[in-house]
Predict the structure.
Amino acid sequence: MPTAPALIAWTTPCPATSLDGLLDDDDRSHLATLREQAARDRSATGRALLRLLLARHLGAPPADVLITRACPDCPRPHGQPRTAGLHLSSASTGGRVLVGLSASPVGVDVERRDAADFPGFDGIALTDAEQRSAAGRAELWAGKEALLKRDGVGLRRDPRSVETAGAELQALDLGPDYVAVVATDRPVHVIDATGLVRAWAASSRRARA
């Protein structure tokens, strides 16, 4: 039997207010802690997209989908997304939001291509071998983030201890300004969900009118 692929979906951010019907109380609580509107829009879009993707996968209404985000270090609901029986991951930056769903551990990350262009990056993020390599720094960083999310530890583990060479990483094309990576042992099925998210937001606005 063929291995079921990891489902990966991406979109551009939508206004947070247009997605409120796809958010739960924990989502709203988290959004209230974010100072910048752009950050609220990205976070709301990621949470809404993950709920839509999971709902379609399960054949259930979005309102019936339970996703928790307990943080191991504090009471705030901003940890790795979790749901019963499946593995989830999410990431966002600038004009891109990326989520993943799989039957086995999965991690996703997206970075602006210039994200690692600052003095001292190599010393805080890369192994000695990576510092000597000609690989793109944004690609290395996105790969590390994806692996750390796949392993469920995030940046609680020193990224300098994470080796990307030989790891099960797959690059995605989300446009020339971005680097996106999936860490999974499965093939991936990638969905441009921009139309799906915007259609839901538009229908929500019409319902409120």
Q: What stands out?
A: The two ends are 48 Å apart (CA to CA). Residues 108-183 form one domain. The chain has two domains: 1-106+186-209, 108-183. The longest strand covers residues 86-93.
